[in-house]
Amino acid sequence: MAPPFDIAVIPARGGSKRIPRKNIKDFAGKPMLAYAIEAAQLSGCFTRIIVSTDDAEIARVAYDLGAEVPFVRPPDLADDHTPTVPVIAHALRACTQQGDSSVRRACCIYPGVPFLVASDIQAAANLLGDEPNTYVFPVCDYPSPIQRALRLVGGGRLSAMHPQYTQTRTQDLEPAVHDAGQFYYGSVDAWLRGLNLHAHGVGLHIPHWRVVDIDTPEDWKRAELLHAALVRDLAGADSIGR
Fold this sequence. Notes:
Layout: E1 5-11, E2 26-27, E3 30-31, H1 32-43, E4 48-52, H2 56-64, H3 84-97, E5 103-109, H4 118-128, E6 135-141, E7 150-154, E8 157-160, E9 177-179, E10 183-187, H5 188-193, E11 201-205, H6 217-233
Parallel strand pairs: 1-4, 1-5, 6-11
Antiparallel strand pairs: 2-3, 5-10, 6-9, 6-10, 7-8
Helix pairs in contact: 1-4
């Protein structure tokens, strides 16, 4: 039996609606998917880098970029409402069915991560260690105190979500972080048991300027502008711009 090893699984379905063909659309000169694959390669953490997709064109691009596509993701795991954990669990079971049962840990890396840094993947691997039933994923600070959040109540009028904090000094409010939405590094048991990512997660703190959520054309444009600026300032870094 082969010694235990880690795999990366990049879930890249073909049915993106708000940004058509988002996962292989050109971003700063290469397919968006390339950034996730390259960060996984640069990290040195993975024996196998697998792309889970239902789309033949995405599969071809992934293969050309050096990833494996050893199975086709079934349609019931490729719609708008499919959670992440079942997709990664399916990939792990597919590997086992194909004769590879030596996977120790699996890292789900989302495909739309042009600012992903390989050293963050390495840090997550070190933080995870051999912890069972656990995930490690990057988190970043909220730009403003969540206790001061406002809600729209109609006609442009506003109401405080937490009125008890309206007079509290910002520096006295508890800091909060949010999921950066880049990757989740977890034990095989956690994935196969279907454990909730956040309920069983450990946060790896990263700077908020390296986090983008690309869901709309406006998000895409903002990410392109930010990427261009970061490439100029961080030439030679281990992920951005390579």
